[in-house]
Write a structure and sequence with these properties.
Structural class: alpha+beta
Distance between the termini: 9 Å
Radius of gyration: 11 Å
Helix content: 25-40%
Number of helices: 1
């Protein structure tokens, strides 16, 4: 199984909440074969290939 890809590290990014939400929409279009979600353990927006 392919590991999750960290796309936005919430701890170090300087994006506003609305910018993060816009980035998520863009990432969903860029990675249509992945789930894009907030990983609470990694404190990041990540992508996981759909199974």
């Amino acid at each position: 199984m392919e590991p999750d890809k960290i796309l936005i590290d919430i701890r170090t990014c300087e994006l506003t909440l609305s910018e993060v939400m816009s980035e998520i929409k863009r990432l969903q279009a860029e990675y249509p074969d992945h789930e894009i979600f907030m990983d609470g353990d990694a404190y990041a927006i990540v992508a996981r290939r759909r199974t």
